[in-house]
Amino acid sequence: MSIVLSAANLHDKWSLAATLDAVVLKAGRGVRRPRHCCLDKGYAFRDCDAIVRDRRITPHIRQKGEASLIGRVHGRARRWVVERTNSWHNRFRGLVIRWELKPQNYLALVYLASALIAYQQSH
Question: Quick check: helix, strand or coil at residue 102?
């Protein structure tokens, strides 16, 4: 998982490159990048597809007008994992409404919430 802060009035596609570059998976033989990336219709642009492919990642972007059954794995939507994680973050009151003025403080709270979520899911 990676976390990148951006303005609320900025379209998600403009943070795609920074978010993908922040994702690092540690493996037994070193650092590696993910092989697949599931994105919703908000990323259904040629430049988003190119950004993902330039990083040697296979994009799974649901196109506008595409049936909802396509993009499902074992009867569940692929994007469900992202929506579930966003829901877990919304349980932290300090994250739902941003009271912090400094972005570093807010980012620290997001990291703390993410660590607590990861800890709760491991037990």
Answer: coil
Count Cβ neighbours within 10 Å for each residue of 94-105 and write b for 16 or more, e otherwise. ebeeeeeeeeee
pLDDT, averaged per 10 consecutive residues of the chain (123 residues), comes to: 84 90 77 81 89 91 60 54 80 88 92 91 82
d(CA 1, CA 110): 12
The number of angstroms, rounded, from the C-alpha of 50 to the middle of its chain's C-alpha atoms is 18
* Number of Cβ within a 10 Å radius of residue 50: 11
> Strand, helix or coil at 98?
coil
Answer whether 48's CB lies under 8 Å from 60's CB: no
Instruction: Indicate whether this model's pTM tops 0.85.
Output: no
